[in-house]
Amino acid sequence: MLSVAALSLVAFSGYFGYSHWQAERDARERSEILDAARQGVVNLTTMNFERADEDVQRVLDGAAGEFRDEFEARSKDLVAVMQEARVQSEGEVLQAAIESQSGDSADVIVAVAQKVSNAGGAAEEPRGQRMRVTVQLDDGRYKIVKAGFVQ
């Protein structure tokens, strides 16, 4: 009888130990997803004509797949326009939440405030926007593979 109780205790401890480990792993993964989405949106919404090449590279470093390829293909034009118009923008993430998650990718809704100014004297008050980004595990790190504004 004692061995049955001991065996039950070991099984019970193993089950709850595994459950705790799984919960911690899931929480860590959600945190990594949200961190990647937040940083990716800041990178997309914060640009300065004086360091446009570095800003574009930062976006590329946090991107993967078709999104990265398309952004890279348009990056020279983006840099030229930013430098010509002397564009400066600053994005600040207000909130982010995982909308859905499947396997190694997740859709994240991000609320961001962006302030933009340019050589023409335009200086906007921070404008609130919502973005939906898809992040996917790429070489051990979550990166943006899709981004767009939510209406």
Word description of this protein:
The chain has 3 helices and 5 strands. It has 151 residues and is an alpha+beta fold. It has one domain: Nuclear Transport Factor 2, Chain: A, CATH 3.10.450. The protein has a 5-stranded antiparallel beta sheet, sandwiched between helices. β4 and β5 form a beta hairpin. The termini are far apart.
What shape does the CA trace take? Answer: elongated
CATH class: Alpha Beta
**Main sheet: strand order:** 1-2-3-4-5
Count of strand segments = 5
Whole-number count of domains = 1
- How widely separated are the two ends? 65 Å
Report the helical percentage. 40-55%
How large is the count of helical segments?
3
Which topology does CATH recognise? Nuclear Transport Factor 2, Chain: A
Could you provide a short overview of the structure?
With 151 residues, the protein is an alpha+beta fold. It contains three helices and five strands; from the N terminus they run H-E-H-H-E-E-E-E.
